[in-house]
Design a protein that fits this description.
The structure holds 2 protein chains of 2 kinds.
Chain A lengths: L2 H19 L3 H6 L9 H9 L4 E4 L8 E4 L1 H24 L6 H20 L3 H19 L5 H31 L7 H6 L7 H15 L8 H8 L2 H11 L1 H10 L7 H22 L5 H26 L4 H29 L5 H15 L5 H13 L3 H25 L12 H25 L4 H4 L2 H23 L13 H13 L1 H11 L2 H20 L1
Antiparallel strand pairs in A: 1-2
Helix pairs in contact in A: 1-3, 1-5, 3-4, 4-5, 4-11, 4-15, 4-19, 5-6, 6-7, 6-11, 7-9, 7-10, 9-12, 10-11, 10-14, 11-15, 12-15, 13-14, 13-18, 14-15, 14-17, 14-18, 15-16, 15-17, 15-19, 16-18, 16-19, 17-19, 18-21
Chain B lengths: L1 H9 L4 H21 L1 H29 L3 E4 L10 E4 L1 H25 L9 H22 L3 H19 L5 H32 L4 H7 L4 H18 L8 H7 L2 H26 L6 H22 L5 H17 L1 H5 L11 H31 L10 H4 L1 H15 L5 H16 L2 H25 L13 H16 L25
Helix pairs in contact in B: 2-3, 2-5, 3-4, 3-5, 4-5, 4-11, 4-15, 4-20, 5-6, 5-11, 6-7, 6-11, 7-9, 7-10, 8-11, 9-11, 10-11, 10-13, 11-13, 11-15, 12-13, 12-19, 13-15, 13-19, 15-17, 15-18, 15-20, 17-19, 17-20, 18-19
Classes of the chains: A mainly alpha, B mainly alpha.
C-alpha cells in the first residue's frame, strides 16, 4: 500500500470510527465538537498525494477502489477544508440545539459520502458514496423540524432519488456494455465513445447529474433546501456536497472524443441556468435563498464549460472545471457562513465583517485578483470565443448584480435590541474560509492551467475580470436608481407547479384503490387465475 | 448422472442431515401436542440451534464440495424410492429459513409464553406448533426432489401458515385466513392436477428423471401451465394477490414476518424448480415474458397501493406484493437469452439475492411494525409522529430494511437491483430496467411517507413499554439485509452448485 493509500484508508476509517462512536448516546451529544477532526486525514491525503495515490479494498469490502487524481485532489482538498471550518463553526452554532446528536450523525454520513465520491474509482462504489452523501443530506436539511424544512426535505429527497435512479442506470449500462465488464470508471469511460449505448448513457448521466447540480428546470429543490438547512449545513451542502455532481461529470463524460450534440445540450441547459439563477435570485430577500439561486447560476456555468469541453473533446476540461469548482467550494461555503455571522451579531455589520463578506461576494463575480477571477480565466479557453463564451462573460455580470443584492440582503438582516459581537467560534472559521478562497486558488492556479500566472497577469486578463463587474455594478445602480420593483417569487419558483402536479396525481389515488378492490374480489381473482392459465398456455401452443 | 449422485450421497454422513432437517421440526410438532404449550415453547427453543446447525453444516458441505448433497430414502433410487437433494440454492434457503424462524421465535416469546398458572394454553400451543410446522414444510419444499413429496410439503406449508393468520381469533383475521385458505386450496388443486398429468404421461414424479424424459407435448404443456398457475396463486403474484394484504397485515407480527419473508417464497421456489429443473426447455421466451409482465404489474401496482395505505402493517404487506414481483423478472432474463449458461448470468444471482435480502428486510420490517403497533396501541401512519424519538432502535431497523427494499447501497437489495439491471441491459430488455427503477423510486416514496413523520419532534407518547431485547431482533435482521450488500456484484458460485448443465432438457 502506498503512503497515499494509507491516508485514504485513514480518512475512511476515521469517519467510520466516529460513526460507530455515535452509537453511544453520551458520545453522540458531544460529537458536534469532534466534527472538525473528521476530515483532517482526507485533507492530508489531498495535499500529500502526488497524484494517483490509490487503494484497493478486498472483494469482501465491496472491492472498492480509490484513486486520488488531480481533479479529485483539488475538490477533495478544498471540500475537506470547508468541512473542517464548517465543523468548527457548527460546534458553536449548534451548541444550544437539543437535537445536535442527530445533526452530528447526519453530518458524518454526508461527510463520508462527499469525501468518498472524490476518491472512489470504481463504478459501484461511486454510486455507494454518491447515494450515501445524497440521502443523508436530508437529515441536515430537515433538521429543525419546521413544516418549511420538512417540505424542503421531501422535495430534496424526491429529486435526489430520481437523480440517483438515472445515474444508477447509466452506471449499470457502462459496466454491462464495456468489454470484460470492467468495474473501473476510467476503463469503462475509455470505451464509451465507441459503445453502442453511448447516447442513452450520456443522456442518463446528464439528466442524473444535472439534477444533482440543479440545472433548470430540475433546480427547484436547491433554493428550498439551502434556505431550510442550518447555516453550517447549508455551507457544506452548497459548497462541498453539490460537487459530487461535478466530479461525476468529470468522471463519466468522455472528453477524449468530441460529442458535439450532447455537449451542446449540456452547455445550453447550463447557460439557461446561469441566467435563470440570477433572474430569480434578485427577486429574493432571504440571503440564504439568494445564495441558493447564485449556486444554480454558478453550477449552470460549470455545466456550460463541461458541455463545451465535451463538444470539442477538450482533454484539459477536467482540470479547468475542477479548479473552478474548487474555488466555488470555498467561496460559497464562506458566503453561507457569513450569513450566520450577520444573523448572530444582530447588529449592523462592522467593517471587519463587511470587508471579507464583500471580497467573497465579488470573488464569486470574478473581480480581478480574487480567486474567482482566476477561476474564470481557467475555464475561458474551454468556453471559447463563440456565443457561449460571450454569454458566460455576461453571466459574470449577472453574478455581480446578484452578489450586490446579496450584500444588501445581509446588511438588511433584522437587528436585535442588544447587539453582541459574533462569537469567535463562528468568526474565526469563517475568516479562515474567506482567506482560503483567495489564497488556495492562487496556489493551485499553475497546476490547473498550462501557462501559469503569465496569462492571468496580462492586460487582457485584467480587462476580462473588470468589465463584467463594472457592467453588473452599473446594472445594480440602474435598477436601484430607477426603483425597479420586483415581485418576490416563491422560494423554488416553479416548485409550485411540481407540487400541484404531485397533488393532482395523489387525488387520482382513489382510482387505484378502486382497482385494488375490484382485483381483490373473488370473481375477478378467479377469472385472473384462469386468464393466467390461458395466456401461459397460449404462449406454449402458438 | 442421477444414479451416480445418489450413490455418492448414500455413503455420506452429511446426507442424513437432509432427513434430520425435516424430521426434527416434525417431531417437535408431535411432541408439542403431547406435552402442552409450555413445553412446546421449550421444544422450539431447543430445536432452533439444532436446526441452524444442521442448515449451516449442509451449506458448508455443499459449498466445499461444489456438488449437490443427495439422500435416497431407504436406499431405493428413483423411480422406486424418493430422493432428497440439497443444491446450493436449497442450502442457502435452509439457512435463511432457520435464521428467520429463530428471529420470529425469539420475538414471539413475549407474546406467546404460557402464563404461570397453567401448563397449556390454546394460542401459545397453536403458535409454537404452527411455527415448527411451517419450518418443517419449508425445509421439505427446498429439499424435496419429487413432485408428489413437494405437493405434501406445499400443503403442510399452507395448513401451517393459514391458522397463523387468525391466531387472535378476531372476525376480520378469520375472514382473512379463510380467504387465504380457499385461494391456496385452489392453487393446490391446480398443482395436483398438473402432477397427476405428468405421472400419467411419464410414470415418475422424480424431478431428475422427469427432466430427462419430458418432451414438448400437450400433456406436459397442460401440466406445466396448471402447476405454475397454482403456485402463482400461492405466491400471491399480481393479479392473484387478493388474500395477501389482509392476511399478512392481520397476523401477529412474528407470524407476519414468517409469512412475508418465507412462506410466499416457498411456492416461488417451486415455480423455479418446475420451470428449470423438472420441465427444462418446455417454457419458451414468450411464457417467460408473461411471468415478467405479471411481476412488473406487481411492482408498480403493489408499490402504488402501498403508498396509499393508512396503516403501517398494510404498507408493509402491499410492499410484499410489490417485492414478489422482482423475483419473477428472473424468468424473462434467463429464458430465451443469447448465452447458453443461464446460471452464470446476472439474472439468476440477482433474482435470488432479491429473495434473500427481501426475506431479511421484510421480516425486520414486520417485527419493527409490530413493536411500533404494540407501543402506540395503533399503527395509523397519520399518528406515527415522533415514534423515531421514542423507539430509535426499532425505527432504525425499519429504515435500514427500507433502504434494502429501495435498493440503496450497501444493502442486499442494491446487489439484487444492480444485477437485475445489468441482466436487463445485457439482454437488451430495457423495459424491465424501467420497471425496476420505478419500483425503487416508489419504494422510496412509501418509506419516506412513514419515516419523515417518524423522525419528527416531539417524541411520541407510548401506551406500552417495549423490551430492549425485542427491539434487537428486527435490528439484527435488518443488519443481515445490510451485510448482504457486501456480496460482490458478480454471479455467485454457491447458487450455481448442482444446477443442470443447460436449460435444454431431454439430455440423451
Amino acid at each position: 500500500m502506498t503512503s497515499g493509500g494509507v491516508l485514504i484508508a485513514a480518512a475512511l476509517l476515521g469517519l467510520l470510527a466516529l460513526l460507530v462512536a455515535c452509537l453511544s448516546a453520551p458520545m453522540r451529544a458531544r460529537m458536534t465538537e469532534l466534527l472538525p477532526l473528521a476530515p483532517i486525514p482526507a485533507l492530508l491525503a489531498a495535499i500529500l498525494s502526488k497524484c494517483d495515490a490509490s487503494l484497493a479494498l478486498p472483494p469482501a469490502l465491496l472491492g472498492a477502489t480509490f484513486v486520488i487524481d488531480k481533479p479529485g485532489a483539488m475538490l477533495l482538498g478544498t471540500a475537506a477544508l470547508l468541512w473542517i471550518a464548517a465543523g468548527i463553526y457548527a460546534a458553536t452554532f449548534m451548541r444550544a440545539d437539543t437535537d445536535r446528536g442527530a445533526f452530528a450523525v447526519w453530518w458524518l454520513l454526508a461527510l463520508v459520502g462527499n469525501l468518498g465520491v472524490f476518491m472512489v474509482a470504481d463504478l459501484a462504489s461511486f454510486y455507494l458514496f454518491f447515494a450515501v452523501g445524497g440521502l443523508s443530506a436530508y437529515g441536515l436539511i430537515a433538521h429543525d423540524g419546521t413544516s418549511t424544512s420538512r417540505r424542503a426535505g421531501i422535495m430534496y429527497i424526491a429529486f435526489a432519488l430520481l437523480g440517483e435512479a438515472l445515474l444508477l442506470m447509466a452506471l449499470v449500462l457502462l459496466s454491462a456494455t464495456a468489454p470484460e465488464r470492467t468495474i473501473l470508471i476510467r476503463d469503462a469511460v475509455a470505451v464509451l465513445s465507441q459503445s453502442p449505448s453511448r447516447d442513452i448513457i450520456l443522456a442518463l448521466v446528464i439528466a442524473g447529474l444535472g439534477l444533482k447540480i440543479a440545472l433548470v428546470p430540475l433546480h427547484v429543490w436547491m433554493p428550498l433546501a439551502y434556505t431550510a438547512a442550518p447555516i453550517p449545513a447549508a455551507a457544506v451542502l452548497s459548497g462541498a456536497a453539490v460537487k459530487a455532481g461535478v466530479i461525476g461529470f468529470l468522471r463519466f463524460l468522455p472528453f477524449d472524443a468530441a460529442s458535439p450534440e450532447w455537449g451542446s445540450v449540456l452547455a445550453g441547459f447550463g447557460i439557461i441556468s446561469a441566467f435563470y439563477g440570477v433572474a430569480v435570485g434578485i427577486t429574493q430577500s432571504n440571503p440564504k435563498t439568494v445564495l441558493a439561486y447564485s449556486s444554480i447560476s454558478q453550477m449552470g456555468l460549470i455545466a456550460a464549460v463541461l458541455g463545451m469541453g465535451l463538444a470539442s473533446g477538450d482533454g484539459t476540461t477536467a482540470s479547468a472545471v475542477s479548479f473552478y469548482a474548487a474555488h466555488h467550494v470555498l467561496v460559497k461555503g464562506g458566503l453561507f457562513l457569513a450569513v450566520g455571522i450577520g444573523l448572530s451579531s444582530g447588529s449592523r455589520p462592522t467593517w471587519a465583517v463587511l470587508v471579507p463578506a464583500t471580497v467573497l461576494a465579488l470573488s464569486l463575480a470574478g473581480l480581478p485578483f480574487t480567486g474567482g477571477w482566476l477561476a474564470k480565466l481557467a475555464v475561458k479557453p474551454t468556453l471559447g470565443a463563440g456565443w457561449i463564451g460571450t454569454f458566460a462573460a455576461l453571466a459574470a455580470a449577472g453574478s455581480t448584480l446578484l452578489m450586490l443584492h446579496f450584500l444588501r440582503c445581509v446588511t438588511a438582516l433584522p437587528r436585535t435590541a442588544q447587539p453582541v459581537p459574533a462569537p469567535a467560534g463562528l468568526l474565526l472559521p469563517w475568516l479562515a474560509v474567506a482567506l482560503a478562497s483567495v489564497v488556495v486558488p492562487w496556489a493551485l492556479y499553475p497546476t490547473a492551467v498550462q501557462d501559469g500566472y503569465a496569462n492571468a497577469l496580462s492586460l487582457a486578463g485584467l480587462w476580462d475580470g473588470v468589465w463584467p463587474v463594472l457592467l453588473g455594478g452599473a446594472l445594480a445602480w440602474l435598477l436601484r436608481a430607477r426603483r425597479v420593483l420586483m415581485r418576490e417569487l416563491p422560494v423554488g419558483d416553479i416548485v409550485v407547479a411540481y407540487e400541484a402536479g404531485a397533488r393532482a396525481m395523489m387525488t387520482r389515488g382513489a382510482i387505484l384503490s378502486n382497482a385494488d378492490q375490484v382485483l381483490r374480489g373473488w370473481r375477478v381473482a378467479s377469472a385472473g387465475l384462469l386468464a393466467v392459465v390461458a395466456v401461459l398456455a397460449a404462449t406454449l401452443v402458438y | 448422472m442421477i444414479e451416480t449422485a445418489a450413490a455418492t450421497g448414500a455413503g455420506n454422513a452429511e446426507a442424513y442431515l437432509l432427513v434430520l432437517a425435516i424430521i426434527l421440526p416434525v417431531g417437535g410438532v408431535l411432541l408439542s401436542f403431547l406435552l402442552g404449550s409450555r413445553q412446546a415453547e421449550r421444544i422450539v427453543l431447543c430445536l432452533l440451534p439444532l436446526g441452524m446447525g444442521i442448515a449451516g453444516v449442509i451449506l458448508a458441505d455443499v459449498w466445499r464440495s461444489g456438488k449437490a448433497l443427495t439422500y435416497v430414502l431407504g436406499g431405493w433410487t428413483p423411480p422406486l424410492g424418493i430422493m432428497l437433494r440439497a443444491d446450493g440454492l436449497s442450502a442457502a434457503m435452509l439457512v435463511t429459513t432457520a435464521i428467520i424462524i429463530a428471529a420470529a421465535a425469539f420475538f414471539a416469546r413475549a407474546k406467546f409464553s404460557t402464563p404461570r398458572d397453567t401448563n397449556d394454553e390454546r394460542a401459545p400451543l397453536a403458535f409454537w406448533t404452527l411455527l415448527l410446522a411451517v419450518w418443517a414444510a419449508l425445509n421439505a419444499v427446498v429439499l424435496g426432489y419429487d413432485l408428489f413429496n413437494l405437493y405434501v410439503a406445499l400443503e403442510l406449508l399452507t395448513f401451517g401458515a393459514v391458522p397463523l393468520v387468525s391466531l387472535d381469533g378476531r372476525a376480520e383475521t378469520l375472514t382473512a385466513a379463510l380467504r387465504y385458505l380457499l385461494f391456496a386450496l385452489v392453487g393446490s388443486m391446480f398443482y395436483l392436477l398438473g402432477a397427476a398429468l405428468l405421472y400419467g404421461t411419464y410414470g415418475t414424479l422424480d424431478i431428475g428423471l422427469l427432466a430427462s424424459r419430458v418432451r414438448p407435448e400437450p400433456a406436459v404443456y397442460a401440466a406445466g401451465v396448471l402447476m405454475t398457475a397454482g403456485l402463482l396463486a400461492k405466491t400471491a403474484l399480481f393479479p392473484l394477490y387478493l388474500w395477501l394484504p389482509p392476511a399478512h397485515a392481520g397476523a401477529p407480527a412474528a407470524a407476519s414476518a414468517v409469512l412475508s419473508a418465507l412462506v410466499v417464497k416457498g411456492s416461488f421456489f417451486l415455480v423455479v424448480r418446475i420451470w428449470f429443473d423438472a420441465l427444462p426447455g418446455i417454457f419458451n421466451a414468450a411464457s417467460a415474458q408473461v411471468l415478467g409482465a405479471l411481476g412488473a404489474g406487481a411492482i408498480i401496482f403493489g408499490s402504488l397501493l402501498a403508498l396509499q395505505q393508512p396503516r403501517l402493517k398494510m404498507v408493509v404487506a402491499y410492499s410484499t406484493v410489490a417485492q414478489i414481483g422482482y423475483l419473477f423478472l428472473m424468468f424473462p432474463l434467463i429464458i430465451g437469452t443469447a448465452s447458453g449458461m443461464p446460471w452464470t448470468g446476472d439474472a439468476w444471482t440477482g433474482g435470488w439475492m432479491q429473495l434473500f435480502s427481501h426475506a431479511f428486510a421484510k421480516a425486520a420490517m414486520f417485527l419493527a411494525a409490530g413493536l411500533i403497533a404494540e407501543a402506540l396501541g395503533h399503527d395509523r401512519i397519520a399518528d406515527l409522529g415522533g415514534i423515531g424519538r421514542a423507539l430509535p432502535m426499532t425505527t432504525i431497523a425499519f429504515a435500514l430494511a427500507g433502504l434494502s427494499l429501495m435498493g440503496i447501497p450497501p444493502t442486499g437489495g442494491f446487489v439484487a437491483k444492480w444485477m437485475l439491471l445489468t441482466a436487463s441491459a445485457m439482454e437488451g430488455q430495457w423495459w424491465w430496467a424501467l420497471v425496476i427503477l420505478t419500483g425503487g423510486l416508489l419504494a422510496g416514496a412509501y418509506m419516506f411517507r412513514i419515516l419523515v413523520p417518524a423522525m419528527a419532534e416531539p417524541r411520541a407518547a407510548l401506551q406500552a413499554s417495549v423490551l430492549r431485547h425485542r427491539e434487537m431482533v428486527p435490528l439484527a435482521l435488518a443488519v443481515v439485509a445490510l451485510l448482504l450488500g457486501l456480496v460482490p456484484l458478480q454471479p455467485m458460485e454457491l447458487l450455481q452448485i448442482g444446477r443442470p448443465a443447460s436449460l435444454q432438457g431431454a439430455a440423451p
